Amino acid sequence: MYHRLWLPSAVVDRFYASVALRFLTSGVKVADACKIIYEEVKKDKKHRYVVFHIKDGKEIDVEVIGNRNQSYDDFLEDLQKGGQEECRYGLFDFEYTHQCQGTSEASKKQKLFLMLWCPDTATVKRKMVYSSSFDALKKALHGVSKTIQATDLNEASQETVEDILRRNDRE
C-alpha cells in the first residue's frame, strides 16, 4: 500500500529554496588578485577602475586595470573589449561634485560602484553564469557603495550612473 507523507508547507518551502539556491550558485570562485586590486582602488587610490571576467568558467579574475587619469568612456570601452556577446564586471571609483541646499560651495564626492555588464546580445548561458556569480564578487569586495546592472550603453552611461549614485545624497 502506498502512503503519502504530508509535510508542513514551511518545510517544503525551505526544501525548494535550498534546491533553487544550489542551481543559482555557479560555483565560480573569486581570485585573490581581485581582492588585492580592489584594495588598491578603494584605499590607495592607485587605479580608477577594474574590469573583471570569468576565466575558464571557474574563476573571476582581473582583466583590465585603468589608471587614475583614465575616463569613464575608457571604462565603458574596456567593458566591451570582449565583444558584443561577452559579459563583464566593472568596478569604478566615480567622482562628482555635489551641492547641498543652503550652501554656496559644492563638495567633491567619490563613490565606488560595481557593475554587472550583460549586453542583450550575450548568450543566455553566459548571462546566467555572470548573474549567478555576481553575489560572490559583491561579498568579496566589501565597501562598494552601489551595484548596478546594465544591459546596454544607455543603462551604463555616465549620466545614468551619476543619477543612481546621487539618489542617496542629502539635498
Automatic annotation (TrEMBL):
This is ADF-H domain-containing protein. Residues 27-166 form the ADF-H domain. One of its GO terms (molecular function) is actin binding. Transmembrane segments: none annotated. One of its GO terms (biological process) is actin filament depolymerization. GO terms for cellular component: actin cytoskeleton. PANTHER family: COFILIN-RELATED. It comes from Parthenolecanium corni.
